[in-house]
Design a protein that fits this description.
heterodimer, A: mainly alpha, 0% strand, elongated, B: mainly alpha, 4 helices
């Protein structure tokens, strides 16, 4: 996780030793003051991920109410974790990027996959629910 | 790097020092995070597709296990993609901190190979079910 030392301003010598791609925007560049667009895109990405979980939870509700509710319960947690990452640091500085936050998503997706696998193999099915009979 | 070393490097609290190297440009950190989230959504989409195939599609004539043959691999692929995406995020973040070139991603290869395999299986199942 990003520690307090990583948030301190860099020393100029250290900064100039690094490759241009690593050292980030120079003074005076628009990105130097604010990484707002990247931050906003990442925030939207977290929101889309939370919505994906909600959609999957909704689908699961048709087949297994408890499983669907479990997945739906994960949705606000993911949304909240995403908001923490975005709002936890001032503009122009690094987000609070923690491995545990990323790991939470991974564990959630793997857990949901295993749940779906269990339901697919052993749960009740509605074969032909997508097949509409003609008039 | 040995196999156990590679595993430790992926695991949280493994052999990666969070303070090693330099803090990369925030935009790169954000981009790495977005890439991980995009792969996670792809994994979820695969899981939904697999579950939908098994639970909702009509049975294939003459191929009673056809729906499971198509749906279960997609669900498993979803889990695999999520795990590999985490490993890629760790490797990319480490490379950014060290200033190393970004490692080559195996995710597109996994996805392309699986989709091609699923297309072949789908064609076979459909052909068998169409034969009267």
């Amino acid at each position: 996780m990003t520690g307090p030392t990583a948030r301190e301003p860099e020393k100029r010598e250290e900064r100039e030793e690094r490759e241009p791609a690593q050292r980030g925007p120079e003074k005076g560049e628009p990105e130097e003051a604010d990484t707002g667009l990247a931050r906003e895109r990442t925030s939207l990405s977290w929101t889309r991920t939370a919505i994906s979980f909600a959609a999957l939870g909704g689908v699961m509700l048709r087949n297994n109410v408890i499983s669907g509710l479990i997945i739906l319960a994960v949705t606000p947690l993911i949304w909240r974790v995403g908001r923490l990452a975005v709002s936890g640091s001032p503009p122009g500085q690094l987000p609070v990027v923690g491995r545990n936050r990323i790991l939470l998503i991974t564990v959630s997706v793997v857990g949901v996959s295993l749940l779906c696998l269990f339901i697919a193999l052993l749960g009740p099915a509605v074969p032909g629910a997508l097949h509409r009979e003609g008039p | 790097m040995s196999r156990s070393g590679r595993f430790a490097a992926w695991w949280p609290g493994g052999d990666v020092d969070p303070e090693e190297g330099h803090e990369p440009d925030p935009r790169f950190t954000f981009a790495n995070e977005r890439t991980f989230l995009a792969w996670s959504r792809t994994a979820l989409a695969l899981v939904v597709a697999g579950l939908g195939i098994v639970q909702l599609l009509p049975p294939f004539p003459r191929v009673p296990v056809g729906r499971h043959l198509l749906g279960v691999p997609l669900i498993i692929l979803g889990a695999v993609l999520a795990i590999v995406a985490y490993g890629e995020w760790v490797r990319n973040q480490r490379a950014l901190r060290r200033g190393d070139p970004l490692p080559r991603s195996v995710m597109p290869w996994i996805l392309a190979a699986t989709i091609a395999g699923m297309a072949i299986i789908s064609a076979i199942v459909l052909l068998i079910s169409a034969l009267r």
